[in-house]
Amino acid sequence: MSKLAQFILAAVCFTVPSFAQTFTAAIAANEKGKPISPRLFGIFFEDLNYAADGGLYAEMVQNGSFEYSPLDQTDWNALTAWQLSQRGGSGTLYIGDARPLHPNNPRYLEFHCRCTNPDSAVALSNAGFDGMVFSADRLYDFSVFARRQPRCTLTIQVRLESADGGLLAEGQIPSLTEDWKQYTLSLQPNQSVTSGRLTLLVHGQGVLYLDKVSLFPQDTFRKRKNGLRADLAQVIADLHPRFVRFPGGCLVHGDGLNNLYRWKNTIGPLEQRKEQKNIWRYHQSVGLGYFEYFQFCEDIGAEPLPIVAAGVSCQNTDRYWGVGQQAIPMENMADYVQEVLDLIEWANGSPDSEWGSKRAQAGHPAPFGLKYLGIGNEDAQTPAFRERFEMLYKAVKEKYPDITVIGTVGPAPDGYDYEEGWKFARTLSLEMVDEHYYKPPQWFWDHLNRYDTYSRSSSKVYLGEYAAHEPGRRNTLRSALAEAAYMTALERNGDLVQMASYAPLFGKQGHTQWNPNLIYFTNTQVLKTVNYYVQQLFSTNAGDSFLPADWNGGTLPATLAFSAVRESRTGDIILKIVNGGSSAHSLQFRLGGLDAAMLNASQTVLTDEDPSAFNSFENPHRIAPQTSSLNLQPEFEYTTTPFSLTILRIQNPR
Ligand code: AHR
Predict the structure, then answer these.
(1) What is the position in ligand 1's atom list of the atom closest to the CA of 464?
(2) Which of 117, 144, 518, 533 is the most buried (most CB within 10 A)?
(3) How many angstroms is it from 412 CA to the middle of ligand 1?
(4) CB-neighbour burial class of residue 182 (10 A; exposed 0-12, middle 13-18, buried 19+)
(5) Which pLDDT does position 3 carry in this prediction?
(6) Measured in angstroms, how far is the CA atom of residue 250 from the centroid of ligand 1?
(7) In this structure, which residue's CA is closest to atom 3 in ligand 1?
(8) Model confidence over 271-293: pLDDT tens digits?
(9) Would the CB of 279 count as within 6 Å of ligand 1?
(10) Total Cβ atoms within 10 A of residue 174
(11) Which is it for strands 108-114 and 155-161: parallel, antiparallel or unpaired?
């Protein structure tokens, strides 16, 4: 038996109490309880840390549209991620913009090839995002838009190669025309590699034009075309999120007005989407656009929660690299308001409507059933922001009264934007506001009562971004337990706090602009942090009514947090016990009003002796939930393991 298993066993066998006092809770297990929002636990997705391109979005080619530029990163340009090698021939690369595929996609590659000898060639390679991963038993779909100059003798072989140029699969593009045309083929590698590349091997002489070069695994999540990396999408699905917030974060309001996230630029044929720089200092291909976000939500049974800019850009950018809060000129606001209204028509309108028809053309005639819309992301509460927010809010509510609009109250749990944001929300009688905070673990323990005193007759709360941050920004057990403790308080206040999402979701190793994140990944691995397991355990044991516990009329020690909920679907009662301290504690439970003498239960424990411990790529399973069965009586004693989250799920006890 492992040391960890012995440790857990010792703590639950009621034989090694290092506690001085027993705490007794009476829980009225037969009462109705207080309602908990059915959408309490969801996720926050932002294209930060290479979460989308190079991450969840399964496109393997980097900069396939030749739209990278120094605006993304000063040393990037339209040829970034592409390598030219002369294999006996000679070739030169230029970037053209005179005859683009589409005005939204202005640049393309112009390739001058001089290969006089039939055996000579020039190779253009793309290793994707840190090398392409090919599996021998899988198929990959290649596509490219191409045209040629008159009187060319060019032929193009499409090759999947290993890092040293070894051939894994090969196909031929048929002869080109002088007009843009898309060419597609499927390739199956003859061996698996993790640092492969795509190579276009060009023979002959002449000038060739290429754009939107793409390579996709066929095995995307749910086998969707233009889909998502299956393992990353699955790790999200396994969280059972009730909603998905997208596309951010700061990405929504961007670095200046030219960098707002404009949803219309992200739908339709891929070669017609408008790419742009990413506020996190890389690039957004927007191949993962609004259609793909909505479809993913539907695939995993989560409510879509898009956030649109409130007519202003991000105020924080001037501190580091950008221009600070800029506001859309009032004379352009009517168009912007219409753009937001069009989003709702696109999501929910009939296929006969102007924007609903675009959704239908994309393959989804049925409405997506959008219910929530966030306006703004922790914007500074300036007059310019308020004026534009109010215009947007009123227009949405007038045309779509059933859409719940979520406002924003700044980046912190207190302070000017928080206070003024709440006042503004009350003035407008907003249904819900979005609170954000990143704080040390102890802050979460110290504020377990935060929402207990919030007014129930004012706006509801969406806790859109939160995480416990420690020095070193590691995903420690200590941080995860602080979040778990706080989540018991969110359940207790589940009538007020309607939704909550840890942030951010993803971090690609070697490409993080922000730590900690919920899930880390490489091109081949997915690392579940302890914080991930906490989110998953709460989400899969959420319950829909909160059962108050009477702790002998007193309170628990400051290192313990507790909640009891009922899941009406099963009738199960779920107890969550968080012990953030180094002592075991004996807890006595009395589940009142039950007829059964013996209760079947399961016990899931997430723990480690060391609260500073974390999961890593080297030791990914150091801390993971352990589940076992238990038989309990309506009155039972339970000893909490030090530094642990315990879920006791008591099967329908009636
Ligand atoms: O979650 C990371 C960033 O934190 C978000 O983009 C922003 O909203 C917040 O400041």
Answers:
(1) 8
(2) 518
(3) 11
(4) middle
(5) 46
(6) 5
(7) 249
(8) 999 999 999 999 999 999 999 99
(9) no
(10) 10
(11) unpaired
Q: Which residues are catalytic?
A: 378
Return the amino acid letter for 79: L
| Residue 221 contacts residue 230 (beta carbons within 8 Å) | yes
Cα separation of 635 and 590, whole Å? 4
Amino acid at 151: R
| pTM above threshold 0.90 | yes
Q: Is 249 in the pocket of ligand 1 (CB under 6 A)?
A: yes
CB atoms within 10 A of CB 15: 9
Confidence (pLDDT) at 25: 92
Closest atom of ligand 1 to 44 CA is 1
Which residue minimizes the CA distance to atom 2 of ligand 1?
504
401, HSE (Cβ side, Cα atoms, 13 Å): 1
Instruction: Measure Cα distances from 306 to 213, 333, 375 in Å.
Output: 29, 20, 9
Question: Which parts of the chain have pLDDT scores under 70?
Answer: 1-21, 318-321, 654
Nearest-atom number in ligand 1 for the CA of 465 is: 1
Q: Is 438 in the pocket of ligand 1 (CB under 6 A)?
A: no
**Model pLDDT, residue 515:** 98
Question: Of ligand 1's atoms, which has the minimum distance to the CA of residue 46?
Answer: 6
Residue nearest to atom 5 of ligand 1 (CA): 249
State the distance from the centre of ligand 1 to the C-alpha of 109, rounded, in angstroms.
35
Contacts of 454 (CB under 8 A, 6+ apart): 461, 493, 496
Pairing of strands 572-579, 560-567: antiparallel
Residues 611-626 have pLDDT tens digits of 999 999 999 999 999 9
Query: What is the pLDDT, as a whole number, of residue 317?
Result: 80
CA 249 to centroid of ligand 1, rounded, Å: 5
How far is ligand 1, taken at its centre, from the CA of residue 248, in Å?
A: 7
The DSSP output letter for 134 is: E
Report which of 522, 526, 506 is spatially closest to residue 514, judged by C-alpha positions: 506
Report how far apart, in Å, the C-alpha atoms of 58 and of each of 52, 67, 245 are.
8, 18, 20
- Ligand 1 contact, 514 CB (< 6 A): yes
Model pLDDT, residue 319: 63
Query: What pLDDT was estimated at residue 19?
Result: 54
